[in-house]
Design brief:
4-stranded parallel β-sheet, 8 helices, alpha/beta, 11% strand
């Protein structure tokens, strides 16, 4: 773990995705198939098995698989750039496949699938499979926070954030009235934040704030990591 935490953001993500989602696939599959077999032994063949989990449980073959989307959609689309890539769709997708970051992850993923007897020509990328394989994907998000996709399959449905249970009502942030005022006045509202792994504010947040600092016609909201609340922009 100490070595993992010292890796650069891209290498940290590559290590986590490869070892948690790709190379561990046989263990996930074997564990769940034991559960399904026990279910059949206890309840017979008459009842369908519906498995509910997050999108990372790959290789599951029950009667139905319902996934809960906990992160941004990574499904391939003609309307959006590939996951982890800033250029637009297919040309960028071809470049994406040549990057060592994606090659290593894809090779690990397809090696495990082949060893389990899976056949496909070609295999989907791991990122696409997260969203495309479930029979139903319930995305814990709103459409406005995702890239617009006219080719989104009907198996993906937005259900918004989960309800808060067991906690008292939370006070809205002090700047929320600015959001309401901007919405009422018809001013564009732009939210900027960083990812969960590569979250250096110098990469996106500070440049965005600087670029739009003189725009009085819009409202810009930026969020930072909680462990760095006193960071100031130069």
């Amino acid at each position: 773990m100490a070595t993992f935490m010292t890796l650069p953001p891209a290498e940290m993500e590559k290590f986590a995705v490869t070892n948690i989602f790709a190379t561990s696939l046989p263990l996930h599959e074997a564990t769940l198939q034991r559960v399904f077999t026990r279910f059949r032994e206890d309840y017979g063949e008459g009842k369908p098995i519906i498995c509910i989990g997050d999108t990372s449980f790959m290789g599951i073959i029950p009667d139905a698989y319902i996934a809960i989307g906990l992160v941004a959609l990574s499904i391939e689309s003609n309307d959006s750039h590939p996951f982890h890539f800033r250029a637009i769709h297919w040309q960028a997708l071809q470049k994406q496949q040549q990057r060592l970051f994606f090659k290593d992850i894809h090779n690990s993923w397809t090696t495990q699938l082949t060893a389990l007897g899976t056949t496909a020509d070609p295999f989907p990328t791991l990122w696409h499979a997260f969203n495309a394989l479930p029979d139903l994907l319930l995305q814990l998000n709103l459409p406005d926070f995702e890239h617009p996709r006219t080719d989104l399959p009907p198996t993906i449905r937005y259900i918004g954030p989960p309800p808060v249970v067991g906690l008292g009502p939370r006070a809205l942030p002090t700047w929320w009235n600015d959001v309401l005022a901007a919405a009422k006045a018809g001013r564009p509202i732009i939210a900027v934040t960083s990812g969960s792994v590569d979250n250096n504010p110098d990469d996106l947040i500070w440049p965005t704030l600087r670029a739009l600092a003189d725009r009085d016609d819009l409202l810009l909201v930026a969020t930072l990591l909680a462990q760095d609340p006193d960071a100031e922009m130069e």
